[in-house]
Amino acid sequence: MVPxxxxxxxxxxxxxxxVVFFIxxxxxxxxxxRKDPPVLNVVDLARxxxxxxxxxxxxxxxxxxxxxAGTRYTTLFADEKxxxxxxxxxxxxxxxxxSDISIYxxxxxxxxxxxxxxxxxxxxIHIFNATLDGEEIPKERAQGFDDVRGPFSTRVRTTPWNEYxxxxxxxxxxxxxxxxxxxxxxxxxxxxxxxxxxxxxxxWKKVRDDFDxxxxxxxxxxxxxxxxxxxQKIVAPDAVAAEK
Length: 244
Prior knowledge:
The protein has 10 helices and no strands. It is an all-alpha fold.
């Protein structure tokens, strides 16, 4: 039973609220997908990246936990430490997923529109940073997101853009992060590693297929070159709806 009073109860209820909130974001992102909005400008591109990163994270992380926990799945969230570890894991995996997809979508846009390396690199950094600027700092990351911005910029500078515009080449950080951060015993993760990574590979394959159908690369690059009003922090569609 979840305590109703005291510090432990408040912390546990807060942890559960975080889990529910992140799941709701992913489900709203899934609903948003079904509308299949075209990707026509920089904001569309970043929102696509953000929603897919969150959904890939949620489905693979919670799917893995559920598979391993079986009938004990729902009871795990009554454990304060475990609930907190899930919250921590979801953010670290999401950041890796956002890094991967920011690289991928920028590589594809650049490849299809004739963008040069400087344009593609700057676009990837903008997507990553603007998306994080639109996120509230979670308590699991009291340091904020500044610690991941520098490493992402370093990754961008060493990215082989032509290679990363094809297949799953860009999606390596998120696969490793899922295995590293999932709150599962290490001895079990050693047995599960390839299966778990394949589950995320499958999610990213669906993302790439969707992106191929929705992207107007020339329109996105023209918007990026215009330095227009779409170059702003990215607010998720559910947050926009809430503000209205």
